[in-house]
Amino acid sequence: MNRVKYREILDENLPKSTQDLRLGERFNFQQDYDPKHTAKTMQEWLRHKSVNVLEWPSQSPDMNPIKHLWRPENSCRAMLPKNGRNSTNTGVLSL
């Protein structure tokens, strides 16, 4: 993907997503330091659209919040209840 495609994706999806989530202008947009994210044209587009971009240190995988939500499949299996209804223990947890 290049910066042009990235901009097309944001143009098409960001306004609708913020509307669907009822965020209004009260959100911070997070992205890493990939060249398509830091391209001058992208920075100008984000400023023009008044998108608040979260300052994010480069090379910071430990700060990725989603990383801490996922566990290896085997760990998830150990967390599932072992009752008669879930005797197959497939590793899928339905809420």
Main beta-sheet strand count, sense and barrel state = none
DSSP helix count?
4
Low-confidence runs of at least 5 consecutive residues: 86-95
Shape: globular
Q: Give the helix/strand class.
A: mainly alpha
- Fraction of helical residues: 40-55%
How many domains, in number, for the residues? 1
What's the quaternary structure here? Answer: single chain
Strand content: under 5%
GO molecular function, one term: nucleic acid binding
Protein name: Tc1-like transposase DDE domain-containing protein
Any key phrases for this structure?
single chain; 95 residues; mainly alpha; 4 helices; 0% strand; globular; disordered C terminus
Please give a quick description of this structure.
With 95 residues, this protein is mainly alpha-helical. The protein contains 4 helices and no strands. It has one domain (3-82).
Account of the protein in words:
The protein has 95 residues and is mostly helical. The protein has one domain. Helix content is 40%, strand content 0%. It has four helices and no strands. The chain has helices at 3-20, 35-38, 40-48, 73-79. The two termini are 35 Å apart. Mean pLDDT is 75; it is low at 86-95.
